[in-house]
Write a structure and sequence with these properties.
This protein is of the alpha+beta class and 422 residues long. The chain folds into two domains: 132 residues, Rossmann fold (3-Layer(aba) Sandwich), CATH 3.40.50.2300; 227 residues, Phosphatase 2c, domain 1 (4-Layer Sandwich), CATH 3.60.40. It contains ten helices and 16 strands. The strands form three sheets. The chain has a six-stranded antiparallel sheet with strand order 6-7-16-15-12-13, covered by helices on one side. A five-stranded parallel sheet has the order 2-1-3-4-5, sandwiched between helices. Helix 2 packs parallel to helix 3. The longest helix has 56 residues. It is rod-shaped.
């Protein structure tokens, strides 16, 4: 080729890479000095930076060191010809974005097919005009830059994914830690006091749940008990529920109210826990059991109630239609009373246990829950509760419930005397 004497062609190429301030770098590999000098001068006049190599082996070292965007490569060279160079370079993963323009004096179809098969991206005839050279170089650089942008994006995505995975692992660990804390707030199973047995089953729909419960000794003659249900589930519901549990502690209630009277507890809770701006609220069932007589005093705030399963006779629900906490600032809550006798059982529950849907959408329902409780009179408390959760899972044909599910069972075992007090 003849060296062009014309000045650089204005606007002939966008030689500046958008990603950096330097013009694109081209590696020119040609063993014939005159041809190499002529082509290098032309590429420089187009606005590119050019590095030169006289054979394939030298070019491999230079390509790995300089990382050019485009390689203009002669086919016929000593030591390593063009196609062999292509094959060798393509085996290097770090060089896969380099675009190889293979120069040849013979543009036979079989030769072109061989060059492409061995790793070349395009061909350039040694007799090509400067317009064709410029066009093929521009096309090759566009492709090379696109591949590099994709590589950069892929690396950024991989880095972001790794960061997200790390953050997710940290979040999961935090949630598990928080779930363990919430679980520690629940009462120990067994016997809170002589004459009373306690068992429970609890399954939040997510890692953290908002349906919580407790049994506590008020004094030598009284047990306090409650179950609360926070609207929604997850972290927010669990945090709000933990706050309400703190309020419901026996020591706190006795300091504030002087007794664990259920209607007074609900009145104060209704004042302190209004419905949030997002419409979140609680339902709450509170009871106080007088151990010497077996008298259970209870009140509810929008809660579906407790189920009393006596040793003899049908089970029945202990509930009253009332507002949830925080819905009506002037709401009134009224105590009800019932006597518990030896071998009677009391079950406090959230609606998540009986509102599980079947695949067709039908709810398991309070009646089916009640039927499992009645059928379990001869079983232990823990066996009866396990049967409830097993039946509910079979009904919905899934392991996890769509809402938090909690059931706490108390059994009167001995020492309670009947009383004529209502």
């Amino acid at each position: 080729m003849n060296l062009d004497s014309a000045k650089p062609i204005a606007g002939s190429v966008d030689s500046t890479d958008p990603a950096c301030a330097l013009p694109a770098l081209i590696l020119l590999v040609e063993d014939e000095p005159v041809t190499r000098t002529s082509m290098a001068a032309r590429l420089k006049r187009f606005g590119y930076r050019v590095v030169e190599a006289g054979n394939g082996r030298e070019a491999l070292e230079m390509a790995r060191r300089e990382r050019p965007e485009l390689i203009v490569l002669d086919w016929m060279m000593p030591e390593m010809d063009g196609p062999t160079f292509c094959e060798t370079l393509r085996r290097d993963p770090s060089m896969k974005s380099a675009y190889i323009l293979l120069m040849t004096a013979h543009d036979q179809p079989a030769q072109i097919a061989e060059g492409l098969a061995r790793g070349a991206d395009d061909f350039l005839s040694k007799s090509a005009s400067k317009e064709e050279i410029r066009a093929r170089v521009l096309a090759g650089l566009r492709t090379s830059r696109l591949v590099r942008e994709l590589e950069t994006t892929a690396a950024q995505l991989a880095s972001s994914l790794l960061l997200l995975q790390t953050k997710q692992a940290e979040m999961d660990a935090d949630l598990q830690s928080a779930a363990s804390f919430v679980h520690s707030l629940l009462p120990p199973q067994g016997s809170p006091l002589q004459g009373v047995a306690l068992a429970w089953e609890y399954q939040p729909s997510l890692t953290l749940g908002g349906d919580l419960f407790d049994v506590m000794v008020i004094d030598e003659g009284h047990l306090g008990l409650y179950i609360l249900d926070a609207s929604g589930h997850g972290v927010a519901a669990a945090l709000r529920s933990a706050s309400l549990m703190t309020f419901l502690r026996a020591k706190n209630i006795l300091q504030m109210l002087g007794s664990y009277d259920p209607e007074k507890v609900l009145f104060e809770a209704n004042r302190l826990f209004p419905m949030t701006a997002e419409g979140e609220y609680f339902t709450l069932w509170v009871g106080q059991l007088h151990l010497p007589t077996g008298r259970l005093t209870y009140a509810a705030a929008g809660h579906p109630g407790a189920l009393l399963c006596p040793a003899e006779g049908p089970s029945r629900w202990l509930t009253r239609a009332t507002f949830p906490l925080g819905i009506n600032a002037s709401a009134e809550f009224v105590n009800d009373r019932v006597l518990l006798k030896p071998n009677d059982r009391l079950f406090l529950l959230s609606d998540g246990i009986y509102e599980v849907p079947s695949p067709s959408g039908a709810l398991w329902g309070r009646e089916r829950f009640q039927g499992v409780i009645d059928a379990g009179r001869q079983r232990s408390l823990s066996e009866t509760l396990a049967a409830c959760f097993s039946e509910a899972r079979q009904w919905q044909q899934a392991q996890h419930f769509p809402d938090d599910a909690a059931v706490m069972g108390l059994a009167v075992t001995e020492g309670l005397e009947e009383s004529s007090h209502g």
